[in-house]
Design goal:
It contains 5 helices and no strands. The chain is mainly alpha-helical.
Length: 83
């Protein structure tokens, strides 16, 4: 599973639209992002992810940071083998 798919799944189960995530992140975390950035992350078009945004999304979605960390490292190792 990719990081984008993981985050999209978490958002789906929270029943949030991308716009709701943008609004909530702005209001509750004083952090600015956009639906296009979130969409690019969720569709794996954005290969470099902002660490602060990852923490904000993990908190908002109730994601397990250890699970997210394992997924990030697994994806990094898989991508390095292809290069």
């Amino acid at each position: 599973m990719t990081i984008g798919r993981y985050l999209r799944t978490k958002r789906f189960f929270k029943e949030l639209t991308l716009q709701q995530v943008v609004d909530t992140v702005r209001e509750n975390y004083n952090f600015s992002t956009s639906t296009s950035v979130l969409s690019a992350i969720e569709t794996d078009k954005n290969k470099i992810l902002d660490g602060e945004l990852l923490f904000v999304l993990a908190d908002l979605y109730g994601a397990d940071l250890e699970e997210l960390s394992d997924l990030i490292l697994k994806n990094l190792k898989a991508n390095n083998r292809r290069n």
